[in-house]
Amino acid sequence: MSSSRIYDQKLAIQGGKPVRTKPLPAWPSYDEEIEAAIKVLRSGKHARQSGSYVAQFETAFAAYFGVKYAIAVSSGTAALHVALAALGIGPGDDVINTAHCFIGTATPIVHCGAVPIFADIDPRTFNIFPNSVREKITPYTKAIVPVHLNGCPAEMDELIEIAKQHQLFIVEDAAQAHGARYRGKLVGTFGQLGCFSFWEDKIISTAGEGGMIITDDEYIAKRARMIQHHGELRNDGDYYQGERLYYHPILGYNFRMTEVQGAIGLVQLKKLPLYIAKRRKNAHLLTQLLSDTVGVLPPYEPEYVEHVYYKYILKLDRRVLETPALEIAQAISAEGIPATRRYPTPLHQQPIFVEKRGFGKTSAPFTPPWYPGNVQYGSGLPVAETIPKDLIMIRMNPNLTDEDIEDIACAIRKVVGYYIQHQEDS
Ligand SMILES: Cc1ncc(COP(=O)(O)O)c(C=O)c1O
Question: How far is the CA of 74 from the centre of ligand 1 (A)?
Fold first, then answer.
């Protein structure tokens, strides 16, 4: 199936008529969430210690994922930080992470005083590549942090096997993949802990910022709950009830979620199944519309996963199209369809790592005496280093209609078709 829409052949970026002038439907879009937030504001109970919405959100989130414990926090970055700290990961340890991602997956490792080691990625799913993980393990490795990137589950069977073989923890970064499934099982439930982000444009959100940790392990859950609340324990052993003794057995932070966020999250969670179904339907329609478009390769969805399409990532087919990804993205955007490159600088080439810029004026935690290993950043991960040159990110959201998806397909076909034609002409 291909789109039959008729459009001006001249690119909008060159002065032609754009495929679309009306903005695409906004995301996120709140309705009952607004009432829920107002109710909290009117109640005067705004912090999680005084209200009950964050606790309710945690209970509902744990039930959705079929796990015993869920701990709400202030962001996805905080979720990863707390999860790693709850496992006791710290100075002298290293943690294996993906090289093709947002930095929020990696800095929590450093904030725990440990060292991230980046692995290469699978060129089809853009997720961490298990064989590369195997090669990166050192005597100091304590955990693997696989990211389910763009909503596509990472290769959990192989990663679990590696973790078992080397006695490593798995902390899943499911910040982009709420409700995605790998062989029928929800991502976030494979590792010792699963971490989620509720940042503004995520699959579900809590008014801009927010995060959640899930686990089945009572001890880890207890530690995580304390760490996100100043490492504090109350008189009766609970975290928020009982007389406050200001008693702090472990190092903690203030990573608490607010009651407004909790109340919004509770409403958003109810919508998650519908959101996932709509995202998948929209993404599959776009893939169908682009199926005969020369020059682009739609996202790969292995048959044993349920991708939730946080983002729709197009791969440029370099056998027929040489135009830089930035030029293509700018031309598609000019057609009225926002498009960008995807993570143009891989994590192992970020200055913070290449130059080992650590705490204060030191290189801690990257070098001895804090870390006995010798980690080198900057090169050696060929797929993560080259693939961003081929990727274009298109925003997906459940509010897009079939007509919107047709416009997206039209803009892509128009731009890619023009550049292929132009190459042939020149
Ligand atoms: C894969 C990944 N990990 C971690 C994070 C950090 O989450 P947050 O922005 O909520 O701190 C993000 C956020 O965008 C992300 O996409």
Answer: 11
